[in-house]
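lol ok so funny story. i was supposed to be doing the assay writeup but got distracted and ended up predicting the structure for this chain instead. priorities right. anyway since i did it might as well share w the group, maybe its usefull for someone
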Amino acid sequence: MDYKPIPLKSKNDFFKNIPGSVYHCLNDQYFTMIDTNEEFLDLVGFSCEEIAMRFQNRLLEMIHPYEREDVIMKREERLSNCSKCTSNYRILCKDGSYKWILDHCRIVKDAENQETIIGIMLETTEIENTREALELTLDRHRVIMEQTSDILFEWDITTDKVLCSSHWKEKFGYELGIYKLSDCYQLPYLHPDDLPKVEKLSQEIQSRNPYLTTELRIRQKEGDYLWCRIRISNQFDEWGCLNKVIGVIQDIDEEKRMIENLRRRAERDALTGLYNRAETQKQIKNYLEQKPDEYSALFMIDTDNFKLVNDKGGHLFGDAVLSEIAAGMKKIVRKSDVVGRIGGDEFTIFIKNISSAEAAKVKAQQLLDIFHHLFEKDKQSVAVTCSIGIAMYPRDGIDFQSLYGSADQALYDAKNRGKNCYTMYEKNGRERFLNIHNSSLGAAIDSDVRVSETGPEDLVNYVFQILYDTEDTDEAIRLLLEIIGKRFEVSRAYIFENTDDGKYCDNTYEWCSEGILPEKEMLQHVSYEDLDSYADLFKEDAVFYCRDISKLTSPAQIALFERQHICSTLQCAMMENSSFVGFIGFDECTGTRLWTKEEVGTLSRISQMLSTFLQKKQAQERDHRIVSQLRNILDMQDAYIYVIDKNNYKILYLNQKTKLLDASAKPGMFCYEAFFGRTLPCVSCPLLHEEVKEVYNPKYEVWTRVHIEPFQWEKEDAYLISCYDITAYMKD
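and the output, tada:
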């Protein structure tokens, strides 16, 4: 015989007067319902007859399967002691959805002493959805915070003590301990050369400069030093007096060493490894500005008849000769001396602390011998000689320009005497130099100076300095592409950056010479899949050079270049952690072009600089986006969310909803002061009493359900407090 349960009454006058969704059920294994009110039926959408036929009046059958066991367990535990039971679960509705409800129930006994259950339900779907979204947000925030390796520190000026976060030991391998910052010369973990920076920083802090930055080296446990960037800001007490300094220590060792490596490479001539023209002048000038007490000697050296060497053996052979000459020069000087290539076949040697003019003449003769014997044992004999002009400091000049002018005049005298000799500048014989035309630094002297092939080292230095000093990377890159494009007379200079998945690239920067149409707008979201393994075009040196586009083997690649009217191209890959992330290119649209080795080397180095600074900019933008997104997510939550310091209850952050509730509440205030107008922590503070979950605030006349989560906020121990408005439920 089929079971036909009796439909619920839903007409009981007693239930009509109870606010909320009320049900009355047996205390059996199914919680079989006896009666309910209209609000319960409105909540689930079923009629009494539908509940009877579909669920046999069993409340348990309406509860989400995942929560049934928990509901049974809680009721067995609580109701057996005749106490109230509160459960949070989902209940099935007629439209197939589940609603979250908060169920308050208790045991009652009828006239026959039979136990039944009466319960009141409050819908909490919106609150639960908000909670889940917030938990997801907090998880994301926690992941973000755990990813950073920056070190936070605090200097308490009143006690003159410094404390650091735990990342210090992870980074450097030892505990920082507590040190007095005022006596900066006793800080054992700083590089001795950087101690003056700390003293200067301390002075600037005392001058109330709100934000300060410096870079210095900190010792690791093994004894090596890491470059770090220190950013600090001041905090003031209620009387406006400086009482604390907080800051961040960021590891920039890899960045610093990369920049130093680029700087070093920018100082060197690509072919010979000697200082380039600009750096040679800078090194000598800086030394002379110190007004040294010792003698010094400046040698101007020009290779005689070098054009004949190039004509006979070709430019590659000429490059080999210049490399050997440079190697020979370095053998007869000390590391402290300056040896530079200042023109195609011109060199300068500056010898510091030389004993006398006679010692300079001995050194000049050694140079002549090096040139004379350089290739005498080779199968292909090459006769190479040089002319040398010598000037002595301080006799012939006390600054760079005057000393160089004297050595330059002496060099021309040596050339006029028949070459392959040296001449010492003589003040008493100045009249024989008067009619000699002075050359400028790096001017051509009887040589085949191929400016574009020797590499514009001044341009490399300029590019580096612009990127290093700029505050607007975008504008600097656009300017530099124009300068580089004009300097090398290319048709187009540009940068392509890959998408995060590496499947596409976008033309993000472009400069075009006069008469060349821009292509940037047409080259967005270009698919690498359609270009036949484009990244493979870049060889081990990360350079793709094609003199004649028609010689490419891929029809897709040829079509790409032909659409842009490109005849020749030189492209340099941008790499990040050994991954291809884009490229910087230079096109020729007026005909095929032969790029020299030096041009390729120079443009490759410039491209590396651009790539390094561009990736740094991108990393900063990514970090900024992550932080902004996190704050936006918290601001979008329909809950009063704020963060307080675990140690002193000071507010560290408020979301938008909290700010709208009370515009006078600000970070830095105590939470009990801002929200309750108290001078001391609240007696019933949820932080002190775990059982307190619902809080009434008379200041705003708001009931909230409070959720507290301990976590790290910018590396500080803190509480994230989420307050859900339940005023409407409490009034009911």
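The longest helix spans residues 597-636. The two ends are 45 Å apart (CA to CA).
back to the writeup now i swear
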